[in-house]
Design brief:
Nucleoside Triphosphate Pyrophosphohydrolase; globular; alpha+beta; three-stranded antiparallel sheet; single chain
Length: 209
C-alpha cells in the first residue's frame, strides 16, 4: 500500500488526466460541460470520497455504495460515498469526509489529493472527488441503511483490466434507456458520473511511474 500511495502522491503533483479521461466513460448522449463557464446558481456543490483500503490479503480496493431505490436521479445506482455540501461543513473536503463516515462508517483516513471536478446535468451537482487512504487494514464498514443498500468492493486490479469495461443500453431512472459504457464490477453496472470519475482515476493510476 505504501508504495502505491507514494506513486499516487507523486503523480497528483503533475497535470491530471482531466475531462479527456472522464469522457471515455460518458453516456453517448452526454454533451461536454466546461466547468469554468458555470455560474454559482447553476450548480450545487458536492463531494465524493475515493478511499483506498487494504484487505486482509494486502490487496487494495475502493468501497462503492449501492444506493437504495428512491424517487431521484441516482436511484439504485452504484456510487462513491458522498453527497452535497452542508452549511456546517467548513469546505468540500470536510463534506467528503463527513459523507464517508455517514455512509460507510469510516473516519480513520488521510486525504492525499483530489481529481478533476465534474458537473452532473441531471442533478446539477458539481462534484469534487477526493482521494484518501484508510488508516486501518481490512476495515469494518457500517452502512447507513436509509441510503445505502450494500457496499461493493472495487479492486484496483479489476479497475485496470480492459475487459472490465462493457457497452450497451442501460435502464436509467424514470423509464429512460441510455446508451453508455460501464464498468462491470461483481455483476454491477457502474456507469454515469461514478464511471467517469473512476475513468480519470484509472488513467491516473495507469500513468504512475
Amino acid at each position: 500500500m505504501e508504495a502505491f500511495v507514494q506513486k499516487l502522491k507523486d503523480r497528483i503533483k503533475q497535470p491530471l488526466p482531466g475531462q479527456e479521461a472522464q469522457y471515455l466513460m460518458a453516456p453517448l448522449h452526454r454533451s461536454r460541460v466546461e466547468i469554468e463557464t458555470l455560474k454559482v446558481n447553476d450548480y450545487r456543490p458536492s463531494a465524493v470520497m475515493i478511499l483506498f483500503c487494504e484487505d486482509e490479503d494486502g490487496s487494495i480496493y475502493i468501497p462503492l455504495t449501492e444506493r437504495m431505490s428512491y424517487n431521484g436521479a441516482h436511484s439504485g445506482q452504484i456510487s462513491l460515498p458522498g453527497g452535497k455540501f452542508d452549511q456546517s461543513d467548513k469546505d468540500l473536503q470536510e463534506t467528503a469526509i463527513r459523507e464517508c463516515f455517514e455512509e460507510i462508517g469510516i473516519s480513520a483516513l488521510d486525504i492525499i489529493g483530489k481529481l478533476t471536478e465534474m458537473y452532473i446535468p441531471v442533478s446539477r451537482f458539481l462534484v469534487h472527488p477526493y482521494l484518501a487512504v484508510c488508516r486501518e487494514r481490512n476495515p469494518v464498514m457500517t452502512i447507513q441503511e436509509r441510503e445505502v443498500k450494500s457496499i461493493v468492493k472495487l479492486s484496483i486490479d479489476t479497475l485496470l483490466k480492459t475487459e472490465t469495461i462493457e457497452k450497451g443500453r442501460i435502464e436509467a431512472t424514470h423509464n429512460m434507456v441510455v446508451s453508455a459504457p460501464w464498468f462491470n464490477i461483481n455483476g454491477h453496472k457502474v456507469w454515469g458520473a461514478t464511471a467517469m470519475i473512476l475513468s480519470e482515476l484509472k488513467e491516473l493510476i495507469r500513468t504512475t511511474s
